[in-house]
Amino acid sequence: MTLLSRLKTAGRVLLGHDTRKNRQRPIPAITRREVAEIKRFFPRDKFFIFGHARSGTTLLTRLVRLHAEVHCNYQAHFFTRRPLLKALVDSPEVEEWLSRKSNRWNHGQDLSAVMLRAAAEYVMEREAAAAGKPIVGDKSPSSTIHGQAVRDLHLLFPEARLVYIVRDGRDVLTSERFRNFVEESPYLGREDRRILKDLRGHPDRYITGGSSIFTESMIRRVSQGWSTNVAEIDAEGKRLFGRRYLAVRYEDLLADPFACMTRLWDFLGVSRIPNHLSGRIRREMGSNPDEEWQARRGEELAAFLTKGKAGNWRRLFTDRDKRLFKDIAGPMLIKWEYEQSEEW
């Protein structure tokens, strides 16, 4: 192999685009015996927070780790964003190495699941150990892989706990729109940029649904992605994790944060929940680092939308926006009790 071809191959692997060589067999699920063995080295209880982007995953992370027994950090994306944790063993060469008969360490089994689990365990436990906390989790938004993320998680962490936070998809759409505007995302097209320019010059046109801040294609893309995400992750979470699965509505977290967090901490298995955490929760919710960052980045746009509030969509959706969103995600809004019927 020439030096140039080696460099090209390395580049594809690093970017997650090397699709020429994939492992020949699926990764085997970790066994109960292997789970018991690995917990001797990594004993802390594990949990994972999933949720569509702009659904409150970051807020939930900031709150859950206020408890003295719980550590949580951000976005390892073991199972929720490509190339994914399983890319570490996604080649025939690695598969053969971990399962070859002459490798006496594997006791005749494919070690892929054990290797992947050990890698994720170390990433999480080294911080939890330093913090002296017995429960540790990762929060990674799950906006594109949906149900497969839950299946991949269960393959390696069948005894872990899964928390899924859901937010009204119309507010998810609105929050994503303003984040892209504030950041002036490179993915904004010509029509997006026209709307952004007009919004800056004539914000009054967009208040109470006068003109739409969305393109039709964005409404269709986000409403479909949100509806699929909520349907698949909730269904797979219940099917695979059972009582180790908990769904949390973002709006319930805003309405009664201490009650919501008490339920979550109980679910994670903490020994006790001190009352003083109620005050710490209120103070933490009074701070919004994302809102402060967006205000510095785009003050006039940040001021247009109150960050983190429920129901922002109501003063911004046009009749067309409502119709498009309802056509795709209306049933999911009803299922999660954001609406009682299609008449909204």
Give a written overview of the molecule:
By secondary structure, the chain is of the alpha/beta class. The chain has one domain: 3-Layer(aba) Sandwich (Rossmann fold), CATH 3.40.50.300. Helix content is 52%, strand content 8%. The chain has helices at residues 3-14, 32-41, 57-64, 92-99, 112-131, 147-156, 169-183, 190-201, 216-241, 250-255, 257-268, 277-285, 289-297, 299-302, 319-335; strands at 45-50, 70-74, 135-139, 161-166, 245-249. The protein has a five-stranded parallel sheet with strand order 2-3-1-4-5, with helices on both faces. The model has no long low-confidence stretch (mean pLDDT 91).
Q: Helix-strand pattern, N to C? A: HHEHEHHEHEHHHEHHHHHH
Structural class: alpha/beta
Continuous helix count: 15
Q: How many angstroms separate the termini?
A: 63 Å
Low-confidence stretches: none
Main sheet, how many strands, which sense, barrel?
Answer: 5 strands, parallel
Radius of gyration: 22 Å
Question: What is this entry, summarized?
Answer:
The chain has 344 residues and is of the alpha/beta class. It has 15 helices and 5 strands.
Comma- or semicolon-separated keywords:
single chain, 344 residues, alpha/beta, Rossmann fold, 5-stranded parallel sheet, 15 helices, 5 strands, 52% helix, 8% strand, globular
Task: Give the helices and strands, then pairings.
Layout: H1 3-14, H2 32-41, E1 45-50, H3 57-64, E2 70-74, H4 92-99, H5 112-131, E3 135-139, H6 147-156, E4 161-166, H7 169-183, H8 190-201, H9 216-241, E5 245-249, H10 250-255, H11 257-268, H12 277-285, H13 289-297, H14 299-302, H15 319-335
Helix pairs in contact: 6-9, 7-9, 9-15
